[in-house]
Design brief:
Number of helices: 4
Strand order of the largest sheet: 1-4-7-10-13-16-19-22-25-27-28
Strand content: 25-35%
Structural class: alpha/beta
Radius of gyration: 20 Å
Distance between the termini: 57 Å
Number of strands: 28
Length: 261
């Protein structure tokens, strides 16, 4: 049995799981599913198309499943999929997708700090942190374990690879490869994210290989395509190196990666 305040406004068609706590002045529309053991604090709005997993905490003033802020949106039915054990702090906005059948996706164990905004059709992995006031535009892809410091702006259609960190106040319009620290204006490479790599058990030897791979990418005079070939030929193989190669191979040549023309 869930503990639902009589002062919450919940459409009877909404599906609420077991052992949830829903505070007064929460607004939940009909086409909503909320899993077990969720806590929804006062003045939260959870709108049509939201599918939320278990163990999530949504704090005051957040809007979940908001209509996409996209001129192409014509009122289509779309979804926002949220996984398990996410912490969504005050005044966070997450938009559902723009078109019929589309999905905005938030994985598991993410921490969205106050004022963060995740826009339409963006896909977020697991165990990410979004700092105060961070804004993620539409159609972005963010890998597992990514950290955004405060007031980061990620522009539309860009990707951030697994285990990277973006420094406070950074605005970027190109892809950020895996396992690096990125920041500045213009946004550039600031070394590998050794703290997180060590935390996840990546050996010093492999970390040196990762650093060598990125020397070829960022310090060489070759294109990303040629640097990727050099990594394949010169850097000892590992799952992390394979991840870097795959990311670089999938980079849109028109958009490119940070720090490269």
């Amino acid at each position: 049995m869930s503990d639902i305040s009589p002062k919450a406004e919940i459409d009877p068609r909404a599906k609420i799981g077991q052992n949830c706590k829903i505070f007064p002045f929460v607004y939940i529309e009909g086409d909503v599913e909320i899993g077990d053991n969720c806590i929804i604090f006062p003045f939260v709005s959870i709108l049509n198309g939201t599918r939320m997993g278990k163990g999530n905490k949504v704090h005051q003033g957040s809007v979940i499943g908001a209509l996409p802020q996209d001129f192409e949106f014509k009122g289509e039915k779309s979804e926002l999929i949220i996984g398990d054990n996410n912490i969504i702090r005050e005044n966070v906005v997450i938009n559902r997708a723009t078109h019929t059948g589309g999905k905005t996706v938030i994985g598991d164990d993410n921490f969205l700090m106050e004022g963060a905004h995740i826009s339409h059709d963006t896909v977020v992995g697991n165990s990410c942190v979004f700092g105060y006031g961070t804004k993620i535009a539409g159609d972005c892809v963010i890998g597992d374990g990514v950290i955004f410091s405060s007031s980061v702006i990620e522009n539309a259609g860009t990707r951030v690879g697994e285990g990277s960190m973006v420094m406070a106040g950074t605005a970027f319009s190109k892809d950020v490869p895996p396992y690096i620290i990125a920041g500045g204006n213009p946004t550039t490479y600031h070394g590998i994210n050794s703290t997180m790599l060590t935390y996840h058990g990546v050996s010093d030897k492999v970390q040196k290989h990762i650093a060598n791979a990125y020397r070829l990418v960022f310090l060489g005079l070759t294109s990303v395509f040629d640097a990727t070939k050099q990594i394949e030929e010169q850097v000892p193989d590992s799952p992390e190196i394979q991840n870097i190669i795959a990311f670089l191979q999938e980079t849109d040549s028109n958009k490119g990666i940070i720090g490269k023309i």
